[in-house]
Protein 1
Amino acid sequence: VVPGETALAFYKAKNPTDKPVIGISTYNVVPFEAGQYFNKIQCFCFEEQRLNPQEEVDMPVFFYIDPEFAEDPKMAKVDLITLSYTFFEAKEGHKLPLPGYQ
Amino acid sequence: MSTAMNFGSKSFKPRPPDKGAFPLDHFGECSAFKEQFLECLRQSGSESSACRPRAMAYLQCRMERRVPGGRPGRGESFLRKVQLMANEPLEKLGFKDLIDEKSEAKPEK
């Protein structure tokens, strides 16, 4: 991935149960310091997504790394940035613990 | 592995996406485009730059499709149709150079 260039990535999610699941996801970036340079244009996160029983879907993320990443001396040794997602089951009336997100 | 639960001063602050969320492609309408894109990544050794035309094709597919959709649990019928991706000029999605190449190639045809 080239900083400044838009890029596409795919995740896959499966609901292995026999009931529909409504989930909501949040993400994490490591190394921590690279997270400020990670910009999502569009993804599947932060909104409720419904998966039917046994359903498997592709989940795209369209993003770019801020070009200033290449100028930051602290990032000089970073050649791998890992993006991960955690799905929570959305329950009616349940407040999700999404740190820092209003 | 859960989200970073440090007790130190640093904690990861998630930010929402600029253009919101992609509706799920429940019926795999754009799966063929996705497969072509992933095939390109496999062949190029995961070079994102090399596969930008196919990424663009995938997003175009999304913009052209309307599928039954709607937010669950809010009293809405699933017969409402939503685009798989809101229309956005491709130049604004970082594909300006690819569009310029295409329009330059046209007069020669």
Protein 2
Amino acid sequence: MHSFGYRLNGLLTFSLTILAIMCAITSLSDNLNTPSPSAEIQIMNINWFQKQPQGNDEVSLTMNISADLQSLFTWNTKQLFIFVAAEYETPKNSLNQVSLWDAIIPAKEHAKFWIHTSNKYRFVDQGNNLRGKEFNLTLHWHVMPKTGKMFADKIVLTGYSFPEEYR
Amino acid sequence: MGLIGDTVDSIKSIQTRQLLSQAVSLGMIVTSALIIWKALMCVTGSESPVVVVLSGSMEPGFKRGDILFLHMSNAPIRAGEIVVFNVDGREIPIVHRVIKVHERQDTGEVDVLTKGDNNNGDDRLLYAQGQQWLHRHHIMGRAVGFLPYVGWVTIIMTEKPIIKYILIGALGLLVITSKD
């Protein structure tokens, strides 16, 4: 009853249980944080806007993205994954979301930033519906913790639109 | 010589009833683990509620050896979610992020494109021949939480099966030779 094996077993079980409880409490502490992020995206230029040979519209644009996401970081945050997506509706599709750019913010100091970039991923429609269309740009973030539950949310910025003609 | 004699004696001295009751308790432990696993499958709505991260394609967020908790609901699939999917014909599920979503007006069906955070290109190379998009039936769950390092136990047991046999053999020996 008190042999080495039993003591080792009891010790291991106890320490694993305590570790699991600590991870759960750490994750719960993330709920205490009330974030107040802000972001702004400006489209500086539509570089080109063409219809591909297969019939799908494609556009390349350059954006200015500035954001302050420092309030999203807690002691349990490993990194913040952010991306900018364009959202729009077409006759065939009720929702289209196309990710244009993403980044990983590893620490709170880097969470307040400004970047001038063209779209990292190709912005291709399913079809040729983009001329003159209005779209939203959303900045999404995904809080990836050191342990526990992940949170995701977004800011929606409206009022952007494509040019009427290809160029 | 004395040690071998002692071990043989202890194996000979096991009564049938004691052996049976130990077998029953072992069976109870295995069955309750199975019950917990199946209950988790029901609660999370996913076929495998916990997966181990096997590759480095989502670093630095998820490293090899982390485990992910999955949950599948009927909520529509949206960009930014980390999903676990099976490509037709491949056994091993892949955990990547959704970067493009096209949802049909009429049927509500959805075309999804995924990409690993640490990969340069999207996952079209990983999909089946000629497949451009994933659909809802490919997706097994969304990642909602994670625990670091715990998955290494599974990785070691899968990649070096000899350790699995050693562990089970040692456990079996312990059960047989224990005195209560």
